[in-house]
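Handout, section 4.2: multi-component inputs.
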Amino acid sequence: MPRTVLETELKNLKSEVLELGQRVGEAMLNSIEALKHRDVEAARKIMEDDKKINEARFEIERATLIVIATQQPLAHDLRLLASILDIAGELERMGDYAKGIAKINILMGDKPLLKPLIDLPRMAEIATDMLRQSLVAFNNDDAETARQIPQRDEEVDALYNQIYRELITFMIQDPKTIDQANYLLWAAHNVERMADRVTNICERVIFTATGEIVELA
Amino acid sequence: MPRTVLETELKNLKSEVLELGQRVGEAMLNSIEALKHRDVEAARKIMEDDKKINEARFEIERATLIVIATQQPLAHDLRLLASILDIAGELERMGDYAKGIAKINILMGDKPLLKPLIDLPRMAEIATDMLRQSLVAFNNDDAETARQIPQRDEEVDALYNQIYRELITFMIQDPKTIDQANYLLWAAHNVERMADRVTNICERVIFTATGEIVELA
Amino acid sequence: MASSSTSLRRKLMRHLQHGDVLWWALLLLSAVVVVVLVLWIAWQLWVQSAPSRHAFGWDFIWPWVKSVWNPALDKFQAWPAIYGSLITATIALVLAVPLALGIAIFLSELAPAWLRAPLNYMVEMLAAIPSVVYGLWGIYVFLPLVVVPIGKALEPLGSVPGIGIFFKGPVPASGFTRLGAALVLVIMILPTIAAVSRDVLQAVPRSQREAAMALGATQWETVWKVLIPYGQSGILGAVILGFGRAIGETMAVTMVIGNSAGGGYSILKPGYTMASIIANEFAEAVSEMHTSALMEIGLVLFAITLLLNAFARWLVVNRTIKRA
Amino acid sequence: MQPQLNITEPTRAAATATDLKMETRGLSVYYKNFRAIKEINLPVYENRVLAIIGPSGCGKSTLLRALNRMNDLVPGARVEGEVLLDGENIYAPGQDVVDIRRRVGMVFQRPNPFPMSVYDNVAFGPRLLGIRKKSVLDEIVERSLRAAALWEHVQDKLGQSGMALSGGQQQRLCIARAIAMEPEVILMDEPTSALDPMATLTIEDLIQRLKENFTIVIVTHNMQQAARISDFTAFLSMDEDRAGYLVEFGPTVEVFTNPKEKLTEDYITGRFG
Amino acid sequence: MQPQLNITEPTRAAATATDLKMETRGLSVYYKNFRAIKEINLPVYENRVLAIIGPSGCGKSTLLRALNRMNDLVPGARVEGEVLLDGENIYAPGQDVVDIRRRVGMVFQRPNPFPMSVYDNVAFGPRLLGIRKKSVLDEIVERSLRAAALWEHVQDKLGQSGMALSGGQQQRLCIARAIAMEPEVILMDEPTSALDPMATLTIEDLIQRLKENFTIVIVTHNMQQAARISDFTAFLSMDEDRAGYLVEFGPTVEVFTNPKEKLTEDYITGRFG
Amino acid sequence: MQSIYEHVDLQSNYRRRKIVNKIMLTLTGLTVALAVVPLVWITVYVLLQGGKYLNLDFFIHLPAPMGMTGGGVLNAIEGSAVMVLLASVIAIPLALLGAFYLLAKPSTALAHALRFSTDMLAGTPSIVIGLFGYAVIVAVQKHFSAFAGGVVLAIIMLPVVLRSAEEMLKLVPREMREGALAMGAPEWLAALKVVLPAAAEGIITGIMLGIARAVGETAPLLFTALGNDNYEIGKIISDGLRYHQSIGKIIGTIFAQPADALPLTLWKYAQQPYQERVHQAWAVAFVLMLFVLGLNIVARAWMAHRRRKLFG
Ligand SMILES: Nc1ncnc2c1ncn2[C@@H]1O[C@H](COP(=O)(O)OP(=O)(O)OP(=O)(O)O)[C@@H](O)[C@H]1O
Ligand SMILES: Nc1ncnc2c1ncn2[C@@H]1O[C@H](COP(=O)(O)OP(=O)(O)OP(=O)(O)O)[C@@H](O)[C@H]1O
Ligand SMILES: [Mg+2]
Ligand SMILES: [Mg+2]
Ligand SMILES: O=P([O-])([O-])[O-]
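Output:
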């Protein structure tokens, strides 16, 4: 079985994607952690780090295109490369969400939190775990698992709704909190969007493994 | 000069992208129009149409990958194809923003508007025009124009800030408006994001034309 | 357009296709004719030599020391002629092969471009010169000026024990000797062997040459270790071809060998070859047995050709199989 | 939701193919006792390009040559099954092989212009068919050369030997020669494998244009080429007895992005062959 | 912000290249009065793959063969300028051409094993150098065949003729033969153009592995191949006098995704050539 | 990786190899010199010697009676022409058809037999062919004749033409024949209109070489054509016309007589004790060599011309 060059390239690209996913997941958790402790320094660091995520995504994209143009992949190989392109894009967007949360942290200035954050970190954990799972499925070319993961989006949505109601209540009760409550709403929204993006990744995994295009949302 | 097959494919793909852009721009304007007139029917139609946008994007993506894998493009051709992939993705996201606005329209139920929308349509018009311009630049492989367009993002940001302040004021003055004001804030945010995405398209145009990777934001 | 009168054209085409029956018949016929021709030659030689074969059996070709070839007695033993053929051809080959190889190597590998064309042309011309011309030149120029001096120089070897019998002198003043025939043959088969070997060397793919050179082989190493081994079966073929030519060569040899039945084994004496004895005696053969004996010599020559060809073919087939 | 497959030309073409131009039914070809291909059922759609791919020796050429009875020329070759051309079995008794070869033309791996002028090369076929009138021949020659995208290059040197052209031009001359017979189907056996990349692209362009008027079946070793130029793809492989059989047939984009058979996948991704 | 170029192996390698193994300085090669290449300045980095591309006849082979003085063999060929190998001009008087060719090995377009056994093929060079000891030869043969990824295939048939191998194996045998001389640089002139796609991939794999120990210069017609396997790319073209000159040289990924010269762009995208 | 060559004295090895190289290459050069000398010698000698004795009479007169001066070899020139013509007429079509057979059916038993037979014919000494001609024609007809001479020369030409034709036909790409067949052309048309023209220049060269070979042959004519000092076609024709013979009859007479040939004359004259005859032998040698040379030049020119026309 030849094609070891292609195989090596694919393996490299896959591990670059996994690494990028790892980094994005951490960025998300860190940004929430920083928000929780109102750690503006950490937030700045996260915003800084997002550049690296963008770069990594560009790198993956360019490398993938060159592999496609030069290795002449077809069938599974081509689907995998297409998915890598797409997943890298999704991950970058998730990175943007983390960055968004960090930015919110900074914009919120030095005001203390309205209340300790509990649901939001929980939400971020679930979303990040979904991301991790989806990347494992990606790595294993495992369409079955990929089909399961998006079901957990319900938990995330439930938490988001809860946060939303809570924050709206805050705002109504005390218009002074509107500013901060709005910011937190943003943050929650970002986490929710992240979970949505995981669904897209799962769709790509299924496409790679089976050639089927499904909509899991 | 041979390669007429590749040339034809590239032309086709480009025009598919332009068509998609056209459709996305319209979706955005329509969704704002519908919001302005609280036309829930129209909003539903827009959400429905977003599927077609997604499909078109998938089509472009698959066709592009096949062209890359079989036509063995390099240099400008490869950069163009990479950009097509990316721009199609950006356009789909813009479509999502339009859909998001339509969704807000629906979520807002049958409550009348707090006030007639003026700044928001203005913002959407500018953003859509930026999109149009960027696609023209894309079509003409015109890096110069592409460099200019993102400057207009300032107008959009200014309008957004104005809307933001206005809506926060509404909320503080009358907590009953918080719900709707929040929704409108979303909508404005979506339009603002759209303008940001145009910047990405412009970056791609410059990359295609010159091979340079610049960050215009 | 083409479809308007299709059926007519179809008929026409079918008619043309039927020409193929005649065509195939012609091809088959000519192939058969050539094969039958060879069989017929063999058959004629066999039949015509029957009286001689019945009369003398294997004695005819047996290497009797005291062979008799006497038309008056109608007793024929061909050993002296056979010996003459073998010795002249062998000497010719031994001398010609290294020279021919040298020429071939020079022509295909070393010659500067400006020299290559004229040398090639010359080799080809010389292979085409009619053998009677060699004979004529041999009688009047080569024998007196070259063969006689060389023969004289060799005479002393006649007293060396063992090989002495091959060099018994004295050399006739005319130069008509087996040695003369052998040396003329050298010149005659040289272009043949050289030309074929040159073609063989040139047919060695350029890539073989370059492979060796790129490994740092010198020019000689390239020739000796790569080109010649690569072309060895072809070169051996050339040698066989040369041997066949030498054995079968008639006119030039007849003109310079002296045509005498004596001479023992010495190469410094006149003799016969198989071909020359036929050329010399056939037209004047009186008795049926004489004619038949000459026919039997023809049969022997034919048999030798058959063996050489079979050997060459075996060589080619064997080499190709090994290489594939 | 399954989006429309793809927007490239070939797929569009595949999606709308309807008319069956040729068809093999249980086609087997034997060389003496060796079965080179076995029981192949293959449709050839009108005005479409069908690519035949497969590992070396799997019988691609054999299959192709069965489509215009070129195998008749091979001693010991024998055909079982049917090959339908417009619904008629070309191996049926009474079929005129000359007429079949006129209707199903062929282009070979190595450009093989005849050793005569460009004009005579193209006029060779029409003359066989009995056309003698200069004006008619002139017209056929020009039309065929135009169709083969060669007219501009050779119109001033029609009298020159066809062998003096470049490789790619020679191949186009051979295509023109085939076109001059007004065939309905053109078979091509690795028509670009002896050409350089540039000439290859020219021929590929030409094939795309030719399918407007002809049905094309092409054997190729180059997967990308098959993916580029064909509407349908047939993948052959060999069984244990080295007999070629049809593993998969389908629209090209399907076969190359999402083949149904593992074997096809392995072959087109270069993991076996 | 300019992201790091690319994560594929070749680019990484290009980015870190430092040591100059060979270099041409103002190199021109003439055949009689015809100047085939003119004033080429080209660096060859150690342990990297340099691909030379360009249209047919632009002098790629000529340039390549100037690097180990194979042009000396062509009557009428003449060299101007310098070719440095580890800083020394190989065309300087007193240089030993036999030694240079040992240090700069070569692999050709068509596999050209000698018609002898696999073992003798590989041992050919070492024997030239005077090595006669069986044990040493054995070791060289095994080591070279291993390096050429051929050992497993031929270890049981070392006595068999090298010409009995498949095309791709023959080419690897030729590579093993070159390796046995322990060259520092290996030149390859379109080493896969006579091979089928599968064998081509095997050789490409091998080249990737070889560059750990050798410096490789490869001429190829296949743009994708150059892009796949090389770290640096040199693009040659012809001027009006048909003399080849260096249009562009750079890291492969740069040259193929963003060439500096319009001519390079046209060539690699197939618009001219 | 430790270098194997570390402990090898490469430098002295190189020196030794270079010396061997020099010596051997010099030796090769010497062989050429050694070989070229006699070859040049023959050519120059024959041309000089023969040229001296050449005159117009030589071409237009019959031989003078033995011992007399003057006379020519018109009989031999005409005899050679007649016999080579007959040989060509027989051998060329047969050889071409045989070559086409080999092309069409390269591996049948008959093809192998045909190839072997051709090699046998090429290798059989010409004197043996002469014996055959004697046995099957002269002995049967009970007289020597130009016809018998022509036939044996045909047998000698046959393998030369057949083998070169086969080689040339094999060089024509298989696709060319198939290309014609794929258009529905019949085999014979494909062979004659496509394959044959493609191989023409090589085949014609082969024919010329065959003719050159036949012109120079002596041995097979010794007891077939025998020789005839009075062979004169002009006379046969005028006699024939005088007696109102049919053309067939006249041609029959031309072939029925014993005939002379240039090499035959050379062979006879060379061994005669008359200076005049020996001189004429040199002149014949000159003519023969010139003919061979001329034929070769024409063959080459023809080949170059065809190639230009075909391959541009
Ligand atoms: N004339 C013949 N006689 C006998 N066997 C043949 C003949 N032609 C082809 N074959 C055999 O038939 C099988 C199929 O051959 P074919 O030429 O059709 O394969 P292919 O797929 O075209 O191969 P390639 O890709 O090498 O051209 C092979 O095993 C081959 O050896
Ligand atoms: N031995 C020679 N004598 C004269 N001219 C030559 C010789 N070898 C090459 N040339 C000429 O030198 C030029 C460059 O030839 P070269 O073989 O180097 O080109 P190339 O780029 O390798 O072409 P290709 O891609 O066809 O292999 C060409 O114009 C060629 O005709
Ligand atoms: Mg084939
Ligand atoms: Mg080259
Ligand atoms: O990245 P989004 O703006 O689509 O959430």
